[in-house]
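Same chain as my last thread, 164 residues:
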Amino acid sequence: MKFNQGQPGLRSALAVCLAGLFFLLAMGVALLGGNLYRAVAADADENDTHRTALSYVVNQLRRGDNGGLAVGEFEGVPAARTTETLEDGSMYITLIYCYDGQLRELYMEEGTGLAPGDGAALMPLDSLDFALNEGLLTVTAGSGGERWQVSLAPRAGIGEVGAL
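reply #2:
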């Protein structure tokens, strides 16, 4: 059986068209995969930020859960406070709050008069709220229009005060 050898250009054109079609499909799949990867990575980053922020706050509150835990406001900003008395009798406080789009922590001797902007910026966060209900502390973090929350029951109790 003989193939038509009189039209070699047609076979070449068909092979080039098939190769071109394969190339276009491969590029489409690669671009689609790249966009999907970027979307998944962005979501994972956002979830990681919120999970890390809430985990950090909860761990700091549990670390300071020795009877000196309180929630209230630090110059109009919702905050949590832990206190620590050193051997020499000096009292230090740790404030955890969200200010200027950042989760912040401020460790200072009581009565130093520092402001919310003086705290160490830890990570981007839009809001951080604390709610106390029947001994259960609910911490809510928000960023990008989404909010996440966690609840904990302090072992030594918690106080709610107006100004910290």
